[in-house]
Amino acid sequence: MHVLVVTDNFLPERNAPAIRTHAHCKRWVEAGVAVTVVTSVPNFPAGVVLAPYRNRLLQRERIDGIDVVRVWTYLAPNEGRWRRMLDFASFGVGGFLAGLWQKADVIVATSPQLLAGAAGGMLGWVRRKPWLLEVRDLWPDSVVALGMMSETSPAVRLLRRLEKRLYRSAARIVTTNDGLRARLIARGIPAVKIGVVPNGVDRSQFSPRPAPQRLLDLYNLGGRFVVGYIGTQGLAHDMESVIAAAERLRGSEVVFFLVGEGARHHGLVKQVRQKKLDNVRLVRSVPASEVPDHIACCNAVLVPLRHSATLPDTMPSKIFELAAMEKPIVIGAEGIAADLIRSRHAGLAVPPEDADALLAAILRLKDEAGLADTLRAGARALAAEYSRDAFAARMLDEIKLAAKIHKPPASA
């Protein structure tokens, strides 16, 4: 079987779709499946091409046995509205055109963004192949929730129609949690058509380890209680509460270690400079291979989300990597993510955008050694439950099911 995957993001990018897609594809190849990925040049989140890549019309490479085809895309940083839409649209067109010439028995398209799903749907229709839509986040729901567009805008109305068409035409739909599945069923999608394959973690890559002395020295973290946030500093993330907590802990032994970039990054740098926060370490994005070592430097880790980003079924994939590193998590969220952290005793859940609650949770972890030990044990158990190996196999089963039930459209 040859699987063609259409995704806007892929390794060496470090966002959730890139990590999930690569992890699954790598395991499918190991299981004897041929895999081709059509994607863009790596540029997330800054919209700047990562060296040594160039934004060419078409280029190929091989990563872990996966045939990767990269297409030219109009590049824009992960902020704003219209430039990002042009970015998404250009990949939708480029991904569709490139996909016409790739081997495929089954096509998999991942959403968001929804225009990557549209490329997969068009490829399935034109090539008369079964296709599966992976829904990791509901578009345009999340766009509206983040205030990027209004529900009544023409663009959102167009996306709503496209969304319904894709749900109808896909042979199979896969979501990342039961909450997303329930919302799709409420919209009239047959329950039997929707599978669930959660996010997970590769525990061979993310495992407990001592903090590297070179990083402790480089960032002047030695002897401090390090509160870390490692990931995209995007529109969905409540960095204001993190800065407010850092300001109130100025002069203490607590230091904030913020690693990553995104739409909020420049504003974050400006705030830290204006407030002269010498207890905040700002580090640009690091290579994927160095992420675990940076997490290892932390005594506690943050997953801070804004109210607008905390839809009931929002499940940040980074919590599984943090749990595998056995780091106590402080999550600012509501819904299934907060419920999971509480139920597994893997961290402390606080209301989103509540700087006082965030500060109190940090101080609890700093002062209560027994609490930190309990949460580390809970994190270890959580990571064991969410194995990437098992979920990659489940996703492959969903792909095979899509191929089995597919009925090609009748010839005109």
Written account of the structure:
This protein has 412 residues and is of the alpha/beta class. It has helices at 16-30, 82-99, 114-127, 141-145, 154-169, 178-186, 213-218, 239-248, 265-275, 291-296, 318-324, 336-343, 355-367, 369-385, 388-405; strands spanning 2-6, 34-40, 58-63, 66-71, 106-111, 131-135, 172-175, 194-196, 225-230, 254-259, 280-283, 300-304, 329-332, 347-350. It folds into two domains: 2-200 and 387-405, Glycogen Phosphorylase B (Rossmann fold, 3-Layer(aba) Sandwich), CATH 3.40.50.2000; 213-385, 3-Layer(aba) Sandwich (Rossmann fold). It is built from 15 helices and 14 strands. The strands form two sheets. The protein has an eight-stranded mixed beta sheet with strand order 3-4-2-1-5-6-7-8, with helices on both faces. A six-stranded parallel beta sheet has the order 11-10-9-12-13-14, with helices on both faces. The mean pLDDT is 90.
